[in-house]
Fold this protein.
Amino acid sequence: MKNTIYSIALVIITLFVCLNPVRAQVTLVENLGSFDQPDTVFSFGNKNYYVLGTTGTTEQLWVSDGTAFGTSFLATFENPGKFHSIPGSSDLFFIEYSASGQMQLWKTNGTVAGTTMIISFGTYTKSAVWPEANGKMTYISYGSSGSGKLWASDGTVAGTIFILNFDFVLKPFKLPSSSDMYFLQGTASDIVSLWKSDGTVAGTTLVETLGTSTICDNLAVRDTVCYFSIKAATGSTFLYVSDGTNSGTNLEGISPEIFNFHFYQASNDLYFFERTAQGIVNLRKLELATGTTPLIGNFGSQLFIEQMVEVGNIYYYTPTSPSGTSLYVSDGTAAGTVFLTNGYTLYNVVKTGGSTDTWFFKKDNTGVIELWKTNGLPSGTSIVKQLGSYGNLITSTITDNKFYFILAASSNNYHLWVTNGTVNGTINLHSFNSPYYFHHFTGFPEAFFYELSASGNLELWKSSGTVAGTILIKNLGTLDNIDEMFFYNNKYYIIFSTTGTNEELWTSDGTNAGTTLLQSFLEPSYMHSFPSLNDLYFFNAANAQNFELWKTAAPLNVSEIQGDVNQLLVYPNPVNDNVTIQIDNNFSGVYSGIVTNTFGQTVQNFSFQKNEVSSSMQLDIAHLATGVYTLTLTSTERTLARKILKR
């Protein structure tokens, strides 16, 4: 008789599991108390640190290892921030501005006792964490006037020192050939000089006095040298190059305006644009070998360079003037810098892996948009297809060597297009009310996106690049905007706002069955992960008194659940009070167990030591309300789950 009961229960459980596969579980980790939304989520080591705003003027620093036991309050601060590490230390460091206006350096090891102040820098309103100098972090503290101090720290009280005063500082940089930190600083009379520091007072020295200036517009490091420009009070811009030494710091050019530093793959020479006194924009390069700045291209009178797109070892430039935008291409030589075409407006110069051509959009002054392509030569620049009269290009993406883009046709009417660079492969796929948020899944060749339909339903769509392959995956219902989207373990987790007071947390693997509502929350936010865990974490402001940390565990595999029916038995099922849990004799070990409700909330915790003596246990669930629950057992090797019906 007992075996018959087991068999009947087994059949019921098997059918229940097959028809109702266990999806990702959403469980409450810890109720943190009365807080606003977090100001900071910072991952360090195997822990996350949270700065939580209170209803007053203070903030609290918390730490979590992803468990309720390991989630705890550390200290109260006024305004903690600028979290960082210091070489050789396992602690986390940050800057705090106290209620009295003191700028302080703090550290924490994730414990209350280990959260301590290292030094108070003094009364300052601004700070910056600068690059490492010979194993020490450097800091600047300054006020509204710009004057302040340079500090260095190895993470200890004794090793945190004041280095020098400054009237104003510009930009720091590192060179790969040196362990020193370099920076530009100025005096009260606007004399700018280049300095270096090894993190000590004696090792902080002047490299070169550069001249009168208050602005550093451009700075770039390439190979073993740094390029930078400083703007003088007279309006002229001075171009310098430095290898970190006095003899290797040289003035290389003077121009009314210098902008847009960049490099070509095959060269360490600096390329930049200059604007002459007459308003002409020129492309020049700085040749290190000769110390000259030859003219590469004259682009005429332009307002700015809208796009710089690097494709292989050439650049496409789109200089823009009041009359429209032009397209130029350059291989870094004067002979190889040529004009390709004019356009009233040019959109999205893009390159894909499946074509030797670069594509771009051209819009005339009547609103007609055309798709063009170019191989970098005037003779190879041609129209692919005239697309029609449109407003703006809304968004675009590249998937499986296809370029998808959305054009605004009219009010509440948008067209999804795709192109492979050919006339026949440029297709108007579908008309939508309001499509947005292109995204991708690993292993899927399609482009995925959301659509807010005219009826107010939010829908998940995908397209393979054909009309027939542009299909609705799932209607999610009357949802509003996407507040957050987080890609984790090849799934997207999405927080949707609704027309009501709550928001909804969904997950999607790109399929209909795998796109599911996890749970409705009042105010979920800040999705994040832990380096050593397989769960996704987020916060929820349940009410004014309860700010909570939640997690969504990785979903159990349906085939594993079905195949493990004989490994875990629960009976009786349905159950009134005590349920027996029996694990197959082939499996021993310590199991941690949870019982979760249909909202994914953990309502009971238990543990089970499975060995040769004890292969079953009884769990009292008499206190639970009537309903369906999921019983989950987890060991170091596997996870087993069964649904139970509490009467």
